[in-house]
Design brief:
The chain has 241 residues and is of the alpha+beta class. The protein has six helices and eleven strands. The strands form three sheets. The chain has a six-stranded mixed beta sheet. The chain has a three-stranded antiparallel beta sheet with strand order 3-4-9, with no helix packed on it. The protein has a two-stranded antiparallel ribbon with strand order 10-11.
Length: 241
């Protein structure tokens, strides 16, 4: 998921006010050694923090339906993560860097809410728009000065980008098939006295002496009322064989 956000930012920085600009896009850490090897204009988009946005955490499930509207799968809500990037411009002159940063702002500000249609395929499948915060209030525990100090370089003008993306933390699972038949009730004949576990489920009626179990006599179907084996069939009165 993170590498797809990298592709999204690269695509955005190649358009807008920067369309046709011969500027390389790099995602490496902007250390002193890296900066010394630069000999052409470069945008460095350095990912320095990944953490969950717990305020967006949701519970429950979502139904996934087919073209007929039948529920075929269940989906749990995704977990949202804040990906924080440090965007810097690298050229031989500070004036050129400032122009590139200005063009980057003009390019990114119209995309502070990226619709699903503009997202990579896996993010499109989740079905959410992705917010892109450009140079907002620094909400992370580490300040930019601490980040530059950890990189071993001097403080440099930068644009802070925060992309909050949904991450499908749980796999979908199949829903049960829809009910297409009515309920079927089957009964069987009980011979002999009832057991205790059968008697406790019999309906009761109330008498003066208290509730008593009611035992209905078993009724045989006409097809089951057979004569005993070897017995002569009964004749009507006054009849003859």
């Amino acid at each position: 998921m993170i590498h797809e956000v990298d592709d999204l930012l690269k695509k955005l920085l190649k358009g807008g006010a920067l369309t046709g600009a011969d500027v390389e896009i790099s995602f490496e850490a902007p250390t002193r050694d890296w900066a010394a090897r630069r000999n052409a204009p470069v945008f460095d988009v350095y990912l320095y923090d990944v953490r969950e946005d717990v305020k967006r955490r949701e519970r429950g499930i979502t139904d996934v339906r087919d073209e007929r509207g039948v529920v075929v799968r269940r989906r749990r809500p995704p977990r949202w993560f804040r990906l924080s990037y440090l965007l810097t411009a690298w050229t031989k002159r500070p004036e050129d860097e400032h122009r590139l940063l200005s063009a980057a702002l003009a390019t990114l500000l119209p995309h502070e809410l990226v619709t699903p249609e503009a997202l990579p395929p896996s993010l499109q499948a989740v079905g959410y728009s992705v917010p892109l915060a450009v140079s907002g209030i620094q909400a992370e525990t580490r300040s930019l000065a601490e980040i530059w100090s950890a990189l071993g370089g001097g403080l440099k003008p930068s644009i802070d980008l925060v992309v909050t993306v949904p991450f499908p933390a749980y796999p979908d699972y199949d829903a049960g098939p829809p009910v297409t038949e009515g309920a079927i009730v089957r009964a069987r004949e009980v011979d002999g006295p009832l057991r205790d576990d059968e008697r406790m489920h019999q309906p009761r009626h109330f008498t003066a002496g208290g509730p008593e179990p009611v035992r209905a006599e078993p009724v045989r179907a006409e097809s089951e009322r057979a004569e005993p084996v070897g017995a002569e069939p009964a004749l009507p009165e006054g009849g003859s064989r």
